Amino acid sequence: MSEGSQSRLDERAWAAIKRLGLSEYEIKAYIALLSKRGGTASEISAAAQIPVSKIYETLKTLERKGLVKVERGRPMRYMPEHPQVASDAIKASIENTLKSDLEIFVSSLTQIYEGAGPERPDLWIIRGEASLWRSVKDVMGRANKQLSVALPIIPTELQRLLISTASLIRERRGIVRILLGPQAIGKDVKALSSIAEVRVREISFGGGVINDVSEAVLLLLASGENRPQVAIYSAHLSLTAIAQLYFDMLWEHSEELSSR
Q: Could you tell me if 63 and 40 are in contact, meaning their C-beta atoms sit under 8 angstroms apart?
């Protein structure tokens, strides 16, 4: 970093900016723009010592990344955004890319993970409250475009997962329908209704969760019990389809949350 714009940055700053995804030409051009408070392409080319053959592409990329704005005219002038504004633009771009890449990471590798272990049986009995809620969380977490939930109340351990899962499915333009008992209605439920369809009715059998009509966990509530201790997990398409039909029937005979 011997001369011109590079000399204004120490090695630590130079390396940090490059890690943000800016090329050497882009850094030199942006620094020249900051120093001159703007300029034409030829002026920035000379100040930053960037070949004329590269300066227009470099300035166009800086505009796309949110570091530069263009004043149309003859010749066009390029004005630098304030470093804080530029920082916000870079941050938003990185976050959007990271979010997209992480979604691909999870969806692609989950398929390998779920296919690599021992084959999951189509039907099994789950005993113990901790185990059944763990299965409910697993089925909810694997929902892609459709999630149906029927619970008398939302246990504390499910609230955050249900909100985050509903948000993700909504981003995918999917459907989330949540059927709750009258005793569950409160501030948290009304907040949930902003990202999912929520209705109310008496739920006496215990409840259940169905994802994409491919998996279901049915909670069984024995007489005199307040919380379920036994559940049935099913990945059999015929059984999950029946469970979904039963949920749809309950849904049709329920009240909208807004009417209460």
A: no
Strands 215-220 and 206-211: antiparallel
In tens, the pLDDT along 186-221 reads 666 777 888 899 999 988 778 999 999 899 999 988
Amino acid at 227: R
What pLDDT does residue 52 have? Answer: 92
Query: E strands of 128-229, at which residues?
Result: 146-151, 175-180, 197-200, 206-211, 215-220
CA angle, residues 18, 23, 26, in degrees to nearest 5: 110
Closest to 172 (Cα-Cα) out of 195, 138, 151: 195
Distances in whole angstroms, Cα of residue 127 to Cα of each of 130, 204, 232: 9, 19, 9
What span, in angstroms and rounded, lies between the C-alpha atoms of 4 and 8?
8
Among 183, 242, 198, 193, CA closest to 216 = 242
Threshold 0.70, pTM exceeds: no
Q: Residue 107's CB: how many other CB atoms inside 10 A?
A: 10
Whole-angstrom Cα distance, residue 38 to residue 63?
13
What is the separation of C-alpha 7 from the centre of its chain, rounded to a whole number of angstroms?
41
Provide the terminal-to-terminal Cα distance of the chain, rounded to the nearest Å: 68
- Domains of the chain by start residue, with CATH: 4-87 (1.10.10.10), 122-259 (3.30.870.10)
Torsion of CA 124, 128, 129, 132, to 10 degrees: -20
